[in-house]
């Protein structure tokens, strides 16, 4: 509890980690606010069904609050009605000249604040993918402010968890995105960094994952713990193994 986990991918797609954490926290009975900026609800729902979780049932029970970013942006830009009359749209910064993410933070806070009858285990914020906010016009400072308030409120005050996916590319010239990624790395308790293989595509090894536990955040003088595994994504699960020890090699 109270941890901030950063999911980072480069040269590959790390969205399988998002599906894992979503199904994991729902099965654990946590209250989840899912800010989905990359795919539609039906996409996440189909994958969750393979993992044995029903997103539709979780929404109906009030366990899952789902913000479908793609649809919300279209509704906002083309003048559709607000989801909750009288309240600002969570993504209203898209149509503002000086964008800030306060409305999005208020939406997250309202979604995760426990009501009287709630009996969920703990609040969880899941974001896929944070770098989309930059593409929609938010500044790096606004994105980092949003994440700072989410960490301070959900992790520190509410003792919940925050899990964020961000795409990065070390060779890209997108300075804003790399600035946000670097800053998030400094504030994370755990970094799961998924990378594609330098040697190119392989049908038996889909990439490698670097697991970085930020022990240095505890100011004990110890270095961060780093473990590296390779993985293969299957239909309903993911197989992990030490580098060079895949079943195809052995």
Automatic annotation (TrEMBL):
Locations listed in the record:
Cytoplasm; Nucleus
Which residue ranges traverse the bilayer? none
Q: Which Gene3D superfamilies match?
A: P-loop containing nucleotide triphosphate hydrolases
Q: Which GO terms describe its cellular component?
A: cytoplasm; elongator holoenzyme complex; nucleus
Q: Which BP terms in the Gene Ontology apply to this protein?
A: tRNA wobble uridine modification
- Does the record's keyword annotation contain GTP-binding? no
Tell whether tRNA processing is among the UniProt keywords. yes
- Chief location category: cytoplasm
Instruction: State the superkingdom.
Output: Eukaryota
Alphabetized UniProt keyword annotations: Cytoplasm, Nucleus, tRNA processing
> Could you tell me which pathway this protein works in?
tRNA modification; 5-methoxycarbonylmethyl-2-thiouridine-tRNA biosynthesis
Which family is this protein grouped under?
Belongs to the ELP6 family.
Q: What is this protein called?
A: Elongator complex protein 6
Taxonomic path? Eukaryota, Metazoa, Chordata, Craniata, Vertebrata
């Amino acid at each position: 509890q109270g941890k901030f986990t950063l999911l980072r991918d480069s040269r590959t797609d790390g969205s399988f980690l998002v599906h894992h954490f979503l199904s994991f926290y729902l099965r654990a009975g946590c209250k989840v606010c899912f800010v989905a900026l990359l795919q539609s609800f039906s996409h996440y729902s189909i994958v969750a069904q393979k993992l044995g979780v029903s997103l539709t049932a979780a929404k109906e029970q009030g366990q899952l609050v789902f913000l479908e970013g793609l649809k919300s942006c279209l509704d906002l830009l083309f003048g559709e009605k607000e989801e909750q009359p009288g309240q600002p749209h969570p993504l209203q910064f898209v149509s503002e000249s000086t964008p800030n993410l306060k409305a999005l933070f208020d939406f997250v806070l309202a979604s995760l604040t426990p009501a009287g009858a709630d009996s969920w285990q703990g609040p969880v914020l899941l974001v896929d993918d944070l770098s989309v906010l930059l593409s929609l016009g938010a500044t790096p400072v606004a994105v980092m402010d949003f994440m700072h308030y989410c960490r301070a409120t959900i992790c520190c005050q509410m003792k919940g968890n925050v899990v964020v996916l961000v795409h990065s590319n070390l060779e890209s010239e997108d300075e804003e995105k790399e600035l946000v990624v670097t800053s998030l790395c400094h504030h994370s308790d755990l970094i799961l960094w998924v990378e594609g293989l330098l040697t190119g595509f392989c049908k038996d090894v889909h990439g490698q994952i670097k697991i970085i536990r930020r022990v240095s955040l505890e100011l004990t003088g110890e270095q961060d713990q780093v473990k590296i595994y390779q993985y293969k994504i299957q239909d309903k699960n993911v197989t992990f193994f030490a580098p060079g020890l895949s079943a195809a090699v052995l």
